[in-house]
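User: Fold this one for me? It's S9 family peptidase.
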Amino acid sequence: MRYFHETLIVVAFLSLLSACGASPPKATHAQAPTALIDREILFGNPTRFQGRVSPDGRWMSFRAPLEGVMNLWLAPVGQIEAARPITRNTGGGIPAHFWALDSESVLYIEDQGGDENWHIYRVDIASGRIQDLSPFAGVQAQFIAQSERHPGVAVIGMNDRDPRWHDVYRVNLATGERTLLARNDRFSAIHVDNNLEVRLATAQTQGGGATVYRRDGDAWRELLDIPPEDYFSTRIVGFTGDNSAFYMVDSRGRDTAALARVNAATGESRTMAMAEDADISDVLVHPRTHKVIAVAANRHQRRWQVLDERYAEDFRVLAEQSGGDVQILAATLDGEQWVAFLSPSDASPVYALYDRQSKTLEPLFVTNTRLAGLPLAPKHNEVITSRDGLPLVSYLTLPVDSDADGDGRPEQPLPLVLLVHGGPWSRDSATYSGEVQWLANRGYAVLEVNFRGSTGFGKAFTNAGNHEWAGKMHDDLIDAVDWAVARRVARRDRVGIMGTSYGGYATLVGLTFTPETFACGVDVVGPSNLNTLLNSIPPYWAGFRRSLVAAIGDPDTEKGRALLAARSPVNRVEAIQRPLLIGQGANDPRVKQAESDQIVGAMRDRDIPVTYVLFPDEGHGFRQPENSMAFYAVAERFLGECLGGRVQAIGDDFTGSSIQVKAGASHVPGVAEALAN
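Assistant: Here's what I get for S9 family peptidase.
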């Protein structure tokens, strides 16, 4: 029931126009009649999002705008016209919510200005009363579990005693009263069983792996070890119905992670399901019996494998009615209705409800109704081979007017944006992306690459990225650019690079380590100095810091510091030849503002132009739609000047935004004027 994980700048400088051409280039396909999609449609609030059905199947909830702010709404299932708001947030909006298992209340999370100090709130659907279940300033709460066997109760972790560690509490949802279940002084995670009793805990090892412990009275006993190479591909899923065993996605002893059943007393493991070409990504467990129904693996698209044959027909019908990839988010307690998420790459995502009795998949709602009929572009599955032979699962999106045959190859080479995902322990997928559609609509080919270090493709692929930040991980991106140029997808002199978090770091690496490859770069919350990055992580990351160090480099050793310094873009700013745009949230707890301040300061010291955009009420990326629209308005004009794509006027896209341009406003046409207005 952890829905939190369902849970983003610079310029065509006049002095650098020689890097992009003597004058702003003309798009070779600029005469195409494709309609320009308004940025507000792509980056504004969706119509509705994050559909949920109550565990008893009576209610549906979702996030939707209320006076421009994303709030929670409630309606009887199938009666969307009867929906009413149950929260009235006027700040940054509510990012995620889920149901209490007794179907009497909805729980949601909220932080302040992107600081990620999440509080957990309860809304009583009968009275409308809202209560903060973690009412402590500066504290981060983590939802751990709830159980049908204990209605009205949740298990929540809170780090109010020690900011590094989350103690585990049993919380009464009606009163907010909490009872300590386990004090935590070293564990990155603590797990409870279906009786809400503390049973397991995970602690990092010095080498970056982990040890799973079982609770034995007041003591903790070692149960099993997770080697460092398995850390990013092994996780505990939940307990069996009788609490004698637990399910674990487990890559130990194999490359791709399988689903295993592990004896909770002995640690003995039995493999239940696996795939040869990808990790198990999804595990569908019956919410009442706690038996596994099916699992999915996702290489290019999600593929379901049924473990309980009583559900085989359901998955056949789902595949037929969904038209392809379907994600199952949750089920009612009786297991008879499933909330599904359908997200084709070239249409608005849809939340739907599958009914096992009628064998029908009925939409709950379309997330963005304004996308209907617009010229959206499909993603094409690609596999690019790296210079040392690794398969890079990738996605190529082309402007709709450039690929008349629909074969994923344009009639003539295009300007291209290499869009790099964050993490890096994450992945790109074949689903809808407003950012991808924006770029394609403006006339760019868009290439998303799952470079080494990405997760989901086996642990060997993930671990191939260890100590390779700005090394072989970057080589993979360069190999992808070469692939696109060789296949006449991209123009060699019109390739830009853009990304958020690790993708922002990759952008800075692109402009400092390979300064002639990219015509320009857009970095959002990207670290510039790996030593300061690792020394300024949030205190509650203490439980997995050793895994970060094992993968990136160790700032506590001389050798590690030297490696991190060598791979830090801030130490190579003198190599920058091409326009750079940087975007940052002032409250970012992961990649702090100092990371952007450092490289901007170093560039200014060397009289290298840069445009720096800061949002004082944002954190790790831009959550508020007013800020997203402001940033993308700047980025669009920046990319248009450098790469020649189509541009929508900035207009009033700064209205309501907290945007501050700390450097280089005059370098991007229209920005200074928009700020003045």
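One thing worth pointing out: Residues 625-643 form the longest helix (19 residues).
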